[in-house]
Design brief:
By secondary structure, this protein is mainly β. Helices cover 0% and strands 36% of the residues. It is globular.
Length: 143
């Protein structure tokens, strides 16, 4: 299975969905997974190539989240709080998803798509054909 691309228009928060407003460090589209860069505290598109970009390791200010709106560098970016259910579209297989290895893609994929040297960051799992439970765990472990 390839990377899962979430359509920005399909990323819909509910009335009780918790999120915070942060600042984008680059152009980001709703539905991409993002990390908080330690050096400037802004949010960037994530991948599992380094500890910081995967939201883990010794970078105690690093985090991983999902962008809920489109933003360019310096603009407000709403990011999803952990342990939230969000509507993301349809047609996804009910399974666990992890952060993709595609450089700078900010996408998710099944764990089987990772290869040697990738860092493992669990993002969450599909709870219904249209809903994703966001429960990130940035392990820092290398495949």
């Amino acid at each position: 299975m390839a990377d899962v691309t979430l359509t920005a228009a399909n990323v819909v928060i509910g009335n009780s969905t918790q999120y915070t407003s942060e600042v984008a460090g680059e152009s980001i589209t709703a539905g991409l997974f993002v990390y908080k860069k330690a050096s400037d505290s802004k949010w960037y598109v994530a991948d599992c190539s380094t500890l910081e970009k995967s939201g883990s390791g010794s970078y105690d200010t690093a985090k991983i989240s999902m962008a809920l709106n489109n933003a360019t560098a310096g603009q407000p970016l709403n990011i999803l709080s952990p342990k939230q259910v969000i509507t993301i579209g349809s047609g996804l297989v009910e399974q666990i998803y992890v952060l993709s290895a595609s450089a700078g893609a900010g996408k998710m994929c099944p764990p089987a798509d990772l290869s040697t040297g990738n860092l493992l960051t669990k993002l969450g799992y599909i709870v219904s054909p249209t809903q994703f439970y966001f429960d990130p765990v940035s392990t820092g472990a290398t495949i």
